[in-house]
Amino acid sequence: MHVSIVSIPVSDQDRAKKFYTEVLGFQQLSDAVMQPDMRWVHLAAPDGGATITLVTWFPTMPAGSTQGLVLEIEDVDRWHTDLSAQGFPFPNGIQTEPWGRYLTVKDPDGNGIVLQTSNRPSS
Fold first, then answer.
1. What is the pTM of this model?
2. pLDDT confidence bin for 121, thresholds 50/70/90
3. How far apart are alpha carbons 123 and 35 in whole angstroms?
4. Rounded to whole angstroms, how far apart are CA atoms 54 and 63?
5. Contact criterion met (CB below 8 Å) for 42 and 51
6. What is residue 81's three-state secondary structure?
7. 39 contacts 33 by C-beta, under 8 angstroms
8. Burial (CB count within 10 angstroms: exposed 0-12, middle 13-18, buried 19+), residue 47
9. Cα(first)–Cα(last) distance of the chain, in Å?
10. DSSP assignment, residue 108?
11. 41 forms bridges with which residues in the sheet?
């Protein structure tokens, strides 16, 4: 068993898709109409893992209610510099923990995304 898809609740799928693809580098797997007023916007991170879908149709999942989606990245400092240059705020800056370093960014709806670089033992 493995996690296949994580649903991210958004208010505007086009705006969210632009953020996830152009800012975070996700790749579009599909963008298809499922029924009137319902689209399947399915994206994948560049290095694989579980995919995400940007959803608007779950009444119990209001836009912006997802917090703590964790994306493993190679260089938290580079991401901090790049995203700061694009105007993304990081009031807490880069945080350091025994397991690694991370920063948190919000998508356009306020969903919280953790960008982390974990400590890895040397081989």
1. 0.92
2. low
3. 51
4. 10
5. yes
6. helix
7. yes
8. exposed
9. 28
10. T
11. 31, 54
